[in-house]
Amino acid sequence: MTAFLLPLLAAAALAPAAVQAQANVTGSCVTGRITFDRLRTYSNVLPGSTPKLNVSTYDMIIDYASKNVEFPSTGGASLALIKDPSGKAATGTRVSTTRYILYGKVTARFSALSLPGAVTTFISMSDRKDEIDWEIVGKDLNSAQTNVFYKGIPEFALHGSTEAVADVSKPHEYTIDWKHNTLSWAIDGVVKRTLNKDTSISPLTPPGERWYPSTPSLFQISVWDGGASDSKGTSDWAGGAIQWGSRSNITALYEWIDIQCYDDHDNPVPKWPADATVNPDKKAAPSNQPTSNDPKQQGNAAVRVGAAPMALVAAAVFGGLVSVLAL
Ligand SMILES: *[C@@H]1O[C@H](CO)[C@@H](O)[C@H](O)[C@H]1NC(C)=O
Ligand SMILES: *[C@@H]1O[C@H](CO)[C@@H](O)[C@H](O)[C@H]1NC(C)=O
Ligand SMILES: *[C@@H]1O[C@H](CO)[C@@H](O)[C@H](O)[C@H]1NC(C)=O
User: Fold this and answer.
1) Which residue of 56, 278, 327 sits with most ligand 2 atoms within 8 Å of its CB, as the best mutation to test the pocket?
2) Tens digit of pLDDT for each residue in 36-75?
3) Residue 135: active-site member
4) Which listed residue, of 4, 50, 66, 98, carries a Cα 20 to 30 Å from 43's Cα?
């Protein structure tokens, strides 16, 4: 957190007056569509290496299990959940934007896994674990779940919702519209839920604060085996052990991610900050990369307790995963 903020603050101080006047400029958002071009997706994160990624060169990074990501000739990225031959948890994968975004409207078009036990996600995640979720559990063919977390504070069943959608195995556009004071979730352009910062509190919200993501975040997509979780609550939530039948893998096709950056007044802008000097690089620290299939180590609000949709926020695995180089 500290390592992350310092260069941003330093850069903000150097920013042109017009930008500086709007204050608190962070992230390195660029408006546009990410189509998962293989050449613009970094896929070579090796344990023990520390790639320094140029965000102008790479849109996305496969955080682990790059063999689980294929790039069909028809476009997009296919994320596989691969059955473990010995019956342990299937291997999933996760792909993150290389750029941090602080407020913007981000839409992903994808077809989710629809086998009970499998989980398909599209979320935001900040270094301090502010998190905004779309999560689809394979046992629910006609619904998708939203959630929101603040500072990684574990909190149960207070901030989630379940929203109707016709057949999650078909392509749908899932939107997270994240503004300074309101957050909304939409499917196929129809707003399903809106959260207002002013009224977003709950018993575990620190005094004087709001349960509201407010730090620069990566946007991430992933598939994971919820049914194999050691936590019965998580497993039940996901739909129990995956019944593979004759299959050895199942895949979710993500077609694209659209990003619309907002400025400090929530106006749509081509990029933010305007001079795009902040945060030009992302440095991954793969020594912290998970190698286990345990969904607790796969981020994305993975630990569930009790009946759905109860979430204990993601285990503190990814806190040190990414940091930003000083300019
Ligand atoms: C910038 O952030 C600081 C610290 O969080 C806050 O006190 C200040 O009001 C913010 N300024 C603007 C213009 O949002
Ligand atoms: C990042 O890539 C862009 C585009 O290829 C290039 O212009 C720029 O010099 C690169 N930055 C660094 C620090 O290598
Ligand atoms: C999934 O299984 C299909 C059919 O067996 C195979 O063609 C494909 O390569 C597999 N995908 C992965 C990522 O293993």
Assistant:
1) 56
2) 999 999 997 776 666 778 888 899 999 989 999 999 999 9
3) yes
4) 4
